[in-house]
Write a structure and sequence with these properties.
alpha/beta; eight-stranded mixed β-sheet; binds magnesium ion; five-stranded mixed β-sheet; binds guanosine-5'-triphosphate; rod-shaped; 349 residues; single chain
Amino acid sequence: MKFLDLAKIYLKSGNGGPGCLSFRHEKYLEFGGPDGGNGGKGGDVIIEAADNLNTLIDYRFTQHFSAKNGEHGMGKLRSGQHGNDVILRVPVGTEILAEDEETVIADFKTEGERITILKGGDGGFGNAHFKSATNQAPRKSTKGWPGQEMTIWLRLKLIADAGLVGLPNAGKSTFLSACSAAKPKIADYPFTTLHPNLGVVKIDDFSFVLADIPGLIEGAHEGRGLGDQFLAHVERCAVLLHLIDINADDVCDTYDIIRGELSAYGNGLDEKPEIIALNKSDTLPAEEAAEKVAALRDHTGKDVYLVSGATGKDVRPILFAIKGEINAARVTPNDTPVSDAPWDDIETA
Ligand SMILES: Nc1nc2c(ncn2[C@@H]2O[C@H](COP(=O)(O)OP(=O)(O)OP(=O)(O)O)[C@@H](O)[C@H]2O)c(=O)[nH]1
Ligand SMILES: [Mg+2]
């Protein structure tokens, strides 16, 4: 399944209904006076963030959205009905951009957030409105105000709770496949992963979404390798899992390279909670592996996990650590997961 994360749509709010020109007609009543009602207001265009959506796929099929026009005013001082609003529902995490594809109009981060992006036109005045002491029988009514129109872009970044970062070949995709039903491509050469993959990880009764993105290399922020464009997909994660191949010439240098790229990218990535793990523990004798763990622990001043994605050994302690960070980031711990997604493995378009 392809994950659509960009859609261009056209919006129009409703025109206001025209006011009515009418005079009261009743038997035995001369000069009944003006009784034309006002036109109804045109409908607004509203965009709302909904929790149960994961894609913008609906906006691939329908790209035009118009709110209803207001109705005509009528005689007997009846106002026209207001036109119905159009409410567009988009996934949490959607950004709304102007037609230039740069100016951010809104950035939906929580369920239920909504904006009225276009207001409907006001209704026109009926002739009753123009009645005055000097003009008892106005023959004037006004048209409604026109609605507005606009073209916008909807852009959705994947919302993963945790993101995997590391050099190419560190074993990120292997780790994802070890703990979820996702089946990313795994191979013994750099840049096997070309697009982010998502997997839903379950530990006991807790689930979270883990994103596997293409590997970073030194200079990724300047476009080297596949660049750092995929880091946008982990910007909203609560925690990063930093995987390092235990066979690297120097695990501390390797760690620093990735940290350097995260801070060069900015957007708060280098301030996110980080879990560090040396991967491929099955390839080294235990004492040698322990030395590397100690070296990296001294270097970073943080806990360092040892794991083998390929054999699945010691994956669970890392998942518990991730769970702890996700819970800490959520407003109400043990609440519904931020993205308890119904999909299992999704590739981005
Ligand atoms: N022995 C051993 N090999 C591993 C382990 N994890 C991954 N590998 C191997 O390392 C190679 C790279 O694994 P991937 O999971 O594709 O690495 P990646 O980090 O996703 O690489 P990119 O997608 O290129 O960034 C593959 O040949 C895997 O079989 C492990 O725990 N032990
Ligand atoms: Mg990969």
